[in-house]
Amino acid sequence: MDDMFADLDEPVSSATTPASPTGPGAKKAPAEDLYAFLAQHSGPAKRSERQEVVGGAANAKRQRTEGTPSASEPAGTSRAVRLQCTTHLETAASEDRGSRAEMEDVQVQVADARRDKHDSRRVSFFAVLDGHGGRNVAHFASEHLHESVLEAGLLTNKDGGAAIDAAKRMKQAVLAGFEATDKKVVQRCAAERWMDGATCVAVWVVEETVVVANIGDSKCVLARTSDQANSQGQVKAITLTRDHKAFHPAERTRIEQAGGVVAADGRLEGRVEVSRSFGDRQFKQKGMVATPHIQIFNITDRDQFLLCGCDGFWGVFGPEDAVKMASKLLGEGRDAKATCNRLINEAIRERRCKDNCTVMLIRFLKQPTDAKGTGESR
Questions:
Q1: If DSSP codes are grouped into helix, strand and coil, which group holds residue 289?
Q2: Torsion angle, CA of 279/362/212/137, rounded to 10 degrees?
Q3: Which of 35, 61, 201, 247 is deepest in the core (most CB within 10 A)?
Q4: 3-state SS class at 90
Q5: Measured between alpha carbons, how far is 133 from 280 in angstroms, rounded to an integer?
Q6: Spatial separation of the C-alpha atoms in residues 299 and 203, rounded to whole Å
Q7: First and final CA of the chain: distance in angstroms?
Q8: What spans are recorded as compositionally biased (Acidic residues) (predicted)?
Q9: Neighbouring-strand partners of residue 124
Q10: What does each of the 378 residues of the chain score in pLDDT, given as a tens digit?
């Protein structure tokens, strides 16, 4: 396995995801067999300022006060957080329902996502979930994903070990966490008779390491300068995620081996365009899975920010286009929140996005450390 902590090439070489649940000649497997396989191999305002808080019901109240803006502070407010590391994070998001009757996107920002507040390691969690056919699954998954990944061992072996071992552990935890979350989602869907689903792009920042995972067509792009010595150099866009569409050859093969059909219009069973999602329980025995694509890297001085968004946003913005505009706005002195607002305004008002539209910006702020080794918040 390649060193996942090595400097990313442009274009990025993807982290390897597990083999398809059904290989050539394999029998059609029911959903419970699919989950067993994964476990074995992974070891209504127009503009919403609503901010989701995750980590399970038991942690929600604690995280609202310790990891997110207070009740008196507008949710999504741009803020730099004092953390025990040399890179600080400034995060914000903005969203608009477009011409849709309902807003089905859910965005999550948890700056301090530690379970153990005595653990000095920075752990932050961010996600954009894009619901289809409703918002129930997106909301439910947003409340369980981070906790499921922690339960799967994202932060184990904190006292060291080879970087490659840490990368493998993180990847296995994310794979298992997505699997566990989807199992909970499907069980809840059956109990409540929900039929909707949700794509997802999720980001964990653990000290100076970034883990990006996605299912479906929600996307994350890294803005990286071309010059290590000059953070104001030309900024390149590096796509860290992989779209999972039913018409893609590898996905089509996997779906057909699972007993599903990709219709002439490229949709799974003629109904849904994506091939990986949370929920969509009626398609789980037809090739719909929640196995994420994963990318892991260490933050360098060249890395400026991440842009995460739903397919509505990326449908009117290309990666280079979005990074260029965001970089220009930040360079003019705007903070993360103002930048997100401008991006959404451009998407909806100027580029005529009709879909739900959400964008999140995670900015890496490199600052000198003080004598105790902690960064100075600005």
A1: strand
A2: -10
A3: 201
A4: strand
A5: 9
A6: 13
A7: 39
A8: 1-10
A9: 205
A10: 333 434 454 434 344 333 334 444 443 333 334 334 333 433 333 444 333 333 333 333 333 333 333 333 344 444 444 445 689 999 999 999 999 999 999 999 999 999 888 887 899 999 999 999 999 999 999 999 999 999 999 987 655 556 678 899 999 999 999 999 999 999 999 999 999 999 999 999 999 999 999 999 999 999 999 876 555 668 999 999 999 999 999 999 999 999 999 999 999 999 999 999 999 999 999 999 999 999 999 999 999 999 999 999 999 999 999 999 999 999 999 999 999 999 999 999 999 999 999 999 999 998 654 434 333 333
d(CA 358, CA 94): 6
Strands, E, within the chain: which ranges?
79-80, 87-96, 105-110, 123-132, 197-206, 209-215, 219-225, 235-239, 278-279, 293-298, 303-309, 357-366
Q: Which domains does the chain have, with CATH numbers?
A: 31-366 (3.60.40.10)
Per-residue H/E/C for 115-163: CCCCCCCCEEEEEEEEEECCCHHHHHHHHHHHHHHHHCCCCCCCCCCCH
Strand, coil or helix: 211: strand
Cβ atoms of 104 and 44 within 8 Å: the answer is: no
* Torsion (CA) 183, 188, 191, 197 in degrees, nearest 10: -90
Residue 276 per-residue DSSP state: B
What are the tokens at 174? 């994310």
Give strand pairing partners of 357: 96
Give me 269's structure tokens. 């069973």
Q: What b/e readout covers 72-81, taking b as 16+ CB neighbours within 10 angstroms?
A: eeebbbbbbb
Distance CA 361, CA 377 (A): 18
Widest Cα–Cα separation across the chain: 63
Looking up tokens 């002439």 gives 264
Residue carrying structure tokens 């994903």: 145
Map residue 39 onto helix, strand or coil.
helix
Residue linked to tokens 């998407």 = 347
